[in-house]
Structures are given as structure tokens and as C-alpha cells.
Amino acid sequence: MTARLRSPWTAVPCAVAVVAVLDLVEPFGVRLGHLTGGLLTADLAVRAGLFTIVLVGLNLLMGYAGQASLGQAAFYGMGAFASAILTVRAHVLGIPPEVVSAWWWPWVVMAAAACAVAGFAWVVGWVILRLRGHYLAMATLGLGIMVYIVLRENLGMPHLNLTGGFDGIVGVPRLRLGSAALWPVGVYLLVVWAAALACVALGENVVHSPAGRALRAIHGSEAAAESVGVDVGALKARIFALSAGLASVAGSLYAHFQAAVVPDTFGFVPSLELVVMSAVGGMRTVWGAPLGATVVLLLEQLLRTHLLGLVPAVSGELEPVVFGVLLILLMRFRPSGLVQAAPAP
Amino acid sequence: MADRRATPELVGQRVAAAIPTPRPAARRLPPAALLLVGAVALLVLAGRRLGYGLAEYAQLLVDGLATGSVYALVALGFVVVYRVSGVINFAQGAFVMLGPMLCISLLGPLPDTAAGLLLAALVATAACAASGALLHRLALHPLRDAAPLARIIVTVGAYVSIQGIALKVWGPRPYVLPAFTTLSMADRLVDVGGVVVQAQSLWVWGTALVTFAALGAFFEGTVAGKAMRACAVNRTAARLVGIQVDRMGTLAFALAATLGAVGGIVLAPSTRPTFDMGLELGLKGFVASIAGGLVSFPGAVAGGIALGVLESLWAGVVLAGFKDLFAFAMLVILLLTFPRSRAASEESA
Fold first, then answer.
1. Which pLDDT score, from 0 to 100, does residue A315 have?
2. Given an 8 Å threshold on Cβ–Cβ distance, is B167 in contact with A335?
3. Is A304 exposed, middle or buried (0-12, 13-18, 19+ CB in 10 A)?
4. Which of A114, B94, B119, B343 is the most buried (most CB within 10 A)?
5. Domains in chain B with CATH codes
């Protein structure tokens, strides 16, 4: 019994359910915000779920296959903007309004965007993943910034104003299932975490499949992996595509959650934030993804709400500083993250 | 078959074959050079379609040379650190920002004279050098045996922290460093046959030339410079002959921070420094160093100047917002054509 309770497969869904119920029902007038001193809110839990989806992909890519990506937020942004453009600005592209207003349209867009982004990453991955170490990190960073600039500059077509430039797009509709709106936030929380846990399950499956063992072999030594018959290039491109596709789904869910998307959410610093979360949770585990996302978001929230009280002279946000220092300390003292990798199966 | 494999001659041949023969870098035209020629041709053609004449090209060239010199200074910082300690120092950009920002803050209480400006610039540069050394001692030295990804993350973390502190101290607004010639916001413009040259550009070129010369003299003529070169060639051998390799690493970081700060300070009067200017300049400096082969000092200078000029030509033919796209596209293309980045060695994997 205790072993079952300790399994994250029980603990995480229970925690999500408790948060959702507290947010939706408010039993005996107990509100989630009050209970946790304004720290844990349904909003934060949704965000943690979204980042979990991105991080599962990033952990497979960085932790298992050993391929650094400092531009992952670009894929997240591509998904978010695809959803926002095709729901809010679909008329510019000549898509009939009765299609756009149908409940299934955002879901179709989400799936199509994920496939397109994954395809893009697959093509890019074939070329870019030949690079190693430092160089791959730099190239993914360059790619991430290029995507950010293209999003910021209206995809180079200012007359259409598809991405809205610096201001982005507002008024992205909420998701619906048939006639039922997946809102308020407590309901959306369940949707996002259902997706997140599905991604974790997917990640666990990949890890325990032959492909997962091949990925770890690539991490150990590409030459050795190749010599025992692993198609290194194809596998790296595929895992890059998978991680990009997951990031795109998370981006779409984010667009429908936030109802507004701006390019700055997907620039260089957010990419870095993803790497931090991944490193905090433990890159070489799939369950590190929800843990890293939740811990980092809670820490951010704590800094935002409580740092002002602790250090009166500080105004504005100190997050980046703490982030950077945290990152250095983590690499120094616990390079494998909070969740230790299980011994290889 | 089996006995042939066992003969000492064959073993010797195999060992010899396994040791990579160093290729003379100068003989072969690097792919980067071809790429640059192609890029220039394309950009010039694009400019012709917009009706650019000789004067316009000359203007773009002059503008590009000034920023290019700054990229070259930043790129030299990358090369120094990479050669001596094998790290690509992402935090390099932070010093390009810290230099001018500190300089502006120091200038506040100082008299508005040339001496005051010089003093502020020198103190700011020294402070940057010290923080560069500190960064190496505190953050990178303890991780000298860690995986490359860990070290990249550490330098990125350092960059983000420093930029965060800068945001805290200076806020998000742009600052003004007076032009060196007039000591005011308005710079003197020199008209050379229809091409307008800012007096500050002359300062940039002059400072860059002096710095290149000083760096050359340091590496050729001083014991510390020679020791650093020895570390670059072979760290273990350098340790064996009694060079304190770790100390040389610290020195390299200080030197890189100095170069970055100098570049940032001379550029500042023509750009309005902000807390986040380091990211762009740092990355472009890195692109320049990659263009020059990452280990070559003259290469880094050439790469920086080429990038500055090309980017200026590019900015002349595209929408303003796409100016920065060029360098990052170059980064990806150069990395892909840069043989070292794909070398099948396990040490960098």
C-alpha cells in the first residue's frame, strides 16, 4: 500500500485532483490561495502541467540522448502562435468563420501544429544534430532566437499582421469539448494534467523501449552506438521531432489558457528557464519533468511574493539573478538534479 | 590475416594513422571564407535592386566597420578563454554591457572632462576584469572536469545573473555615454567625400587597433602571455613545465572581460547602452569567433569585421526588424560548415 502511495502515478494525480477540487468547490469556504499563503494557485498548477509536457520532451532529448537544446521555447512558441493565429486571425487566411467557430477546430489546429512543428524539427534535426557539445547548444540557441525574431516581425509579412508583432495576439478562445467549455481554470487544470500525465507515460514508454536504450547508448558514445547498429542520425532527429511536437502541444494549450500570446514569452530567457527546470528536476528521469516544473514555478512565485517582504530595498523582479545563481549551484553540487536517475534497466 | 595484424610494423602504422595529422590551417581556404564571398555578392546584388550607388555602399561599409571592430574585440575574448581553458564563455556578453554601464555610473560624480571620462573608463574596465576573474574562480574553476553541457549552463547562468543584477541596478531604460570627441551627446560628424563618419567610429577603430597590438605584444613578449599560449597548445604539458594552468584560466577570463568591456565602452556613445545589450553583442562576438575558426586571434578579428560589414549591408536591404536575423543565421550556417564542431571526437560529446 505504502509502495503504491509512494509511486508518482498515484501521488501526482491525487495532488492535481485535490488542487482542482479546492479551486472549483471551495469546500467550507477554504480557498486554495489562502491555504498556501497565496503560493499555490490553480493558475500555477496549470503552468506546471504545461511545462511538464515540454520538459518530458526536453528530458528525453537532453538527459537521455545527451543533445543540448537552448532553443526549446521556440517550438513552444510555434505551437502557441499556430493556435492563436488559426483561431483569432483565421479570417486573414481565408478560412471560413463557421469552421473556425466549430468546437473541434482548435483541437484540429493543435494536432496539425504539433505535426508541422515536429516535421520542421525533424528536418532541422537532421542537419543541426550533427553538431556536438558546445556547438549544438549554440546552434539551437541561434535557431531559437531566429524563430523569436520571425515571430516578432510578423513572419516577414507585416501587411497580414499575423503574429501581431511585439504585442502578439489577444482574445484566443477557450477550448471546448462539444458544447461544454473546458473552463473555469479548475477544469482546464484537469485537462492539462491529463495531457501532461499522458506525456509522462509516453516518455516512460520511450525510455523503456529499444529506442530508449539506443538513446542512452548515443549519450554514452555515438561511435559505439553506431557500431552496434543504432542509426544515430535518424534516432536523434526523431527524438528532436518528438520533443518539438510535445513543446508545440504545450504551446497550443498555453495559448488557449492564457488567451493571449506575445513573442517575448518564447525568447531566449524562457528557453533557458526550460533548461533550468529540466536540470532541477533531473534531466535523466521522466518524472523529473513535473517535479522540476513545479519546484521552479513555486520558487519563482515565492520570490515574487515574499522576497519583497524579506529585503525591503529590492524592487521589481529578482528572479533572473536567483535563477542564474541557482543554476550554477545546481551544476556545482547536484549535477543530476533532484530526482536521481534509476539504474538503467 | 591474424598474424599480419600482429606485426609490430602494422601496429605502428595503425597507431600513426590513428593520430590525426595537423592540417596547416592557412593553406586551405576555409568554407567560411567562401560563404562570406557568397554572402557579399548576394547582398550587393540585393542592394543594386534598391538602387544603391557607390556612396551608399561606402556608408554601409563605414558603419559596418565600426560595429565590426567591436565584434572583433568581443570575439577575441571568446578565443582567449576557449584556447586557454576550453570553455565557451557565454557570460562574455555581460562584460560588454557592464563596461559601459559602470563607466556611465562612475562618470556621474566625476568632472565632465576628458580626464574624468578616461578615469571612469579605466576603472570600469578594471572592475570588469576583476569580475571576469571572479567568475572563473567561483563558477567555472570548480567545474573544470564537468561535462561541456554543465559548463555551458554555468556560463549561461552567470550571464543571466549579471544581467539580472544590471536590471536591478540600472533599470530597463537606455543610458547615454558622451561621445569621446565632444564630451556631449551630439557627436561630431566628419564628411569624407559624401560619406558621413562619426568621430566616435574613429575612436572605435583606433581603440581596436591599439588593443589588437597590445594583445599581440602580450602574447609574444611577456612570460604570462607565453604561458597562456602554452596552455592553449597543451594543458598537461604546460602543467608539467610548471605553468599554473588554473591561474592562467583565471587570467584568460579577466583578459576576455577586459576586451569585452573595452568594446562595450567605445561602442556605447553611438548605441545607448541598456541592461540587455550584452546578449546580442556577446552572441555576435561568438559568431565572429566561429567565423574565424574559434582558435585564431587574427581569424577572430577578421571574422568580427566581416560580420559587422555584412550585417550592415544586410540591414541596408531588409526590414529593420530583421537586422539581427543575419548574425544568427550565420551562426547556424557557420557551425554546420565548421569542421571542428562535427569532429567525431568523443571529448566534446
1. 53
2. no
3. middle
4. B94
5. 32-41+55-173+198-335 (1.10.3470)
